[in-house]
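FAQ
Q: What does a multi-component entry look like?
A: The components come first, one per line:
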Amino acid sequence: MTQRGAPHVLTGTRIRERRLALSRRQADVARAAGISPAYLNLIEHNRRPVGADLVQRLAEVLQVPSEDLAEGREEARIAALRDAASRAPEIVSGSPPELDQAPEFLARFPGWAEALMATARRSEALERQLVNLSDRMRQDPYLLTTLHEILSAVTSVRSTASILADEGEIPDDWRHRFHANLDQDSLRLSTTAQALVAYLDSFEAESPIFTPQEEVEAWMAAGAPPVDEAGDLASDAARQLARTHLARLEEERERLPDADLSAASVDQADAVSIAARLGAPLDLVMRRLAALRPEGFARAGLLVCDGSGALTLRRPAPGFPLPRPGDACPLWPLYQALAAPQTAMAHLVVTPEGRRFTTLSYATRSQPSGISGPVLGRAQMLFQPAPASASAPALPEVPIGPSCRICPRADCAARREPSILLAR
Amino acid sequence: MVLDILMIEDEPNIAEAVRFILDRDGWRLALHADGRGAIEAIRDCRPRLLILDLMLPNRSGAEILADLRADSDPALAATPVLMLTARGDTVSAAAQSDAVLPKPFANDELRAMVRRMLA
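Then the predicted structure of the entire assembly, as tokens:
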């Protein structure tokens, strides 16, 4: 057993604290120390060991004696040992770990101690990966749709094959039909299974399970607990996004207080009327309605995209099909709004399952760098389940989907890739 | 002629196989392939048993079932329903049904369930 992982626990934290004290970017420090930013990120979060040579290099970059970074290694290792013991499965019989003897154990058996700590770290990483994979299996619309496709094809094959095998005499026309159905379903199974395997292959085993945006969405769905205590925010990027999001919410709440918005929305059915009553910018009113969700907007969701069409905020509404980040339906009215800034557009969108949502889309343009700077576009779409048809306003109806890959609309003019649902 | 069974299922090959099996057992069966118009089809047919897929286009089986149970005609609202499911998280969605048959199912399993529900 080597000593490569020995001092990693507190050392990483100290490296991070020192870097932040110098206001240095992680990427800059990593480059100067000859390692990748991703590896430094893992070190700083005590997820990778850091040897003496690297501590020395980082100490030079951070202009601090290397002893300062490595200091406390024994205490850190003792803490890690105790942590490993606390994570051990409950011991039904026999003695529990002698926590008070961790220092002596470490001194007498450093190799065994290191093996125990490494095992605990590995166990923790695997537990986290398992939870993330489990979440993905339950929530990923692509996986759910694909598995449903496979199950439907298997059901058909099983029933049809069973008829051919067990039902005795079968009229020729039926027999031919069943053979054709089997051929069709086997082709569909093959195509869908290949698509599923390709999708699963795209998961990189060592890469983060969620993108920072997905982490932030999970954090928002959990009620946006304090950033530093939020288990959903695993990456620096996600925590930064979350802080930016909170700061913007606060700033917008000051511009348009909760009480004013709630009062203005009591008898107003749409955001345009509310904005007019308040004399407030429509885009601000839309974002505040999605954040506060006052009466009449309790089930509202919000999509925001930049000028390239990339979604920068996704607040779901019940039943609206949101695909994975990076995927979207080009027919969402959000994208039409980009082409006509400062124009509010109302639509009734219909999902492939027949769910109907009223949408209000609105785009703005700005030049934050002044007259000679670039013109930046941004569009947002406020949406919520449509009221019953009797009371629904007359709006242009737009058939939409989640994303091309899992959309069953065969005749869509905006399709950019084949759907697995059309392989049948 | 009284209809025994109305099956609402959008997968044509599954519907065809089920139709063959239940026809052979002597049941009078009609098919409807879409969530849209399903409740109207039930009102028109007034089947003794409804076989209802959970995942349907335009309107889910759970929504159709809720509409049926809320129908103003008490006899229609009480129509026995056998729900076909393909997903593991559908216990609550199928709560108002009388029986649930997970996909994929064995033909004999379906036959026995239909016999029991129409007895």
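Q: Is there any commentary attached?
A: Sometimes. For this entry: The two ends of chain B are 18 Å apart (CA to CA).
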